[in-house]
Design brief:
39% of the residues lie in helices and 21% in strands. The N and C termini lie far apart (64 Å). The protein is an alpha/beta fold and 475 residues long. It has two domains: 269 residues, Aldehyde Dehydrogenase, Chain A, domain 1; 181 residues, Aldehyde Dehydrogenase, Chain A, domain 2. The structure holds nicotinamide-adenine-dinucleotide. Nicotinamide-adenine-dinucleotide binds next to helix 7 and helix 8.
């Protein structure tokens, strides 16, 4: 059983009657799972009107009451985890265990925002003149519109739903057309938890047409997007016409530096497990491996061994540890990166090719000896390919790690306290993990610098993103 795909507008789940639609595919088999209805321009206008109407009451609903509904929604998501995990694996490909982990994390994110919403305090600033009050008030921005990608079909919507709704905003979410079922199940759980009509609306369609329509409307006041750098820049341009607030979680190309004093086998084990999670389709995935020359061989040998130990297959089957890529376009992207690396002297140590003719499988791959200006070292791979190169000095490797225009995540492994401090200070990224890959939690800020984006989701920063600041002076 897959999901019953619907739009959600003004509290009503709407089917495809008379609407344009598109098929949704299972990336492990190529089979069609269901037909996804597209929202018409009239549907989008109804969603905007409903969100605007709902905002007038939702903003005045006590944060405690908003939080109670969101918390109930998170609980329903947890209760329904078996069904939702299956939907996610069928449409996205990741193994069931990863789908379950993501759904639990997403429920925790919604619950965290539900609690934090009641702590949006503002400030009192002492005035120079006696009898004058100076208040900093936080007011919900208004109707938010959000666009989420296919790699984390539960977590990326949860961050936007949780932040917007806990702050008192209403939301129109356009989730990814490749993986709509998970978003529909989340919307159902939240409606069942008691969300008033119009507070959360869910639409699908042609991404460029839907985002242009929603952002151009004077009703929307906040734009949140997770996806590629190119699309993010386009949406910021659209939002700038009417000076709308934006949060942009864009791509990265996370460098990893493994210093000579690190344990090469332990580091390679942790990094390879992290690298191949979700078949590498993770924006904070470790993706450029700079390993000190003195430990390059044991590190690479262990990395290759972990890659070869993974069981590639349909994520619904027992024992499978890596699923397919989300679509054939991602397999083609991997082939292009490997061909370029090999043409420039790269050595494929394992993998390097698509697997089979059914579904969009690509082998866990390790490539060494490639130059820093190869595509794989400069473009976000967003797939299961690990390029490993060597370095010899601290300043040299920091310059290489910081050389790209991205700055989402960055990692380093070392047993030296002094090196840990220096590398933590020196890496240009929104999130840095030293001796750990755990840089994403409900309560910690998640976001990038430079081309990787603007603003954060998660942590108190993720809630602040949905507030306007008003300074009130009262004499
Ligand atoms: P893409 O750029 O076509 O799409 C990325 C996402 O943005 C998709 O979910 C898509 O539906 C959406 N999108 C595309 N155009 C849009 C528009 N005009 N308005 C609103 N949404 C729009 O690329 P793709 O082939 O799906 O993925 C390839 C690249 O996207 C990856 O290499 C990676 O760099 C990036 N990506 C990043 C993330 C992330 O978590 N930051 C997630 C998914 C994809």
């Amino acid at each position: 059983m897959y999901a019953d795909l619907k739009l959600l507008i003004d509290g009503q789940f709407l089917s495809g009657e008379g609407r344009a639609s598109q098929p949704v595919f299972n990336p492990a088999t190529g089979a069609v799972l269901a037909d996804l209805p597209h929202a018409s321009p009239g549907d989008l206008d109804r969603a905007l009107d409903a969100a605007q109407r709902a905002f007038e009451t939702w903003r005045k609903t006590a944060p405690q009451d908003r939080g109670r509904i969101l918390k109930r929604g998170a609980d329903l998501i947890r209760e329904r985890i078996d069904a939702i995990a299956r939907v996610m694996t069928l449409e996205q490909g990741k193994p069931l265990a990863e789908s379950r982990g993501e759904i639990l994390y997403a429920a925790d994110v919604i619950e965290w925002y539900a609690e934090e919403g009641r702590r949006a305090y503002g400030r009192v600033i002492p005035a120079k003149t006696p009898g004058v009050r100076q208040l900093v008030l936080l007011e919900p921005v208004g109707v938010a519109v959000a666009f989420t990608p296919w790699n984390f079909p539960a977590l990326t919507p949860a961050r936007k739903i949780g932040g917007a709704l806990a702050a008192g905003c209403t939301l129109i979410l356009k989730a990814a057309e490749d993986t709509p079922g998970t978003a529909v199940e989340f919307a159902r759980a939240l409606q069942d938890a008691g969300l008033p009509p119009g507070v959360l609306n869910l639409v699908f369609g042609d991404p460029a047409a839907v985002s242009a329509h929603l952002i151009a409307s004077p009703i929307s006041r906040k734009v949140s997007f997770t996806g590629s750098v190119g699309v993010g820049k386009q949406l910021v341009r659209l939002a700038s016409e009417d000076m709308k607030r934006t949060t942009m979680e864009l791509g990265g190309h996370a460098p990893v530096i493994v210093f000579e004093d690190a344990d090469p086998v332990a580091a390679a084990t942790a990094l390879a497990m992290g690298k191949y999670r979700n078949a590498g389709q993770v924006c904070i995935s470790p993706t450029r491996f700079y390993v000190h020359g003195s430990i390059l061989e044991p590190f690479t040998d262990r990395f290759v061994a972990v890659a070869q130990s993974l069981k590639l297959g349909d994520g619904t089957e027992d024992g499978v540890t890596m699923g397919p890529l989300v679509s054939s376009r991602r397999v083609e992207a991997m082939e292009r990166l490997v061909a370029d690396a090999v043409a420039r002297g790269g050595v494929v140590r394992t993998g390097g090719a698509r697997r089979g003719n059914v579904g969009s499988f690509f082998e866990p791959t390790v490539i060494t000896d490639l130059p820093d200006d190869s595509l794989l070292m400069t473009e976000e791979p967003f797939g299961p390919i690990a390029p490993i190169v060597s370095f010899s000095g601290f300043d040299e490797v920091m310059a290489r790690a910081n050389a790209l225009p991205f700055g989402l995540a960055a990692y380093a492994f070392t047993t030296s306290n002094a090196t840990a401090t220096a590398v933590g200070d020196g890496l240009k990224a929104g999130m840095v993990g030293v001796n750990t890959l755990a840089v994403s939690n409900p309560e910690t800020p998640f976001g990038g610098v430079r081309h990787s984006g603007v603003g954060q989701e998660g942590g108190i920063e993720g809630l602040q993103a949905y507030f306007d600041v008003k300074f009130l002076a009262q004499a």
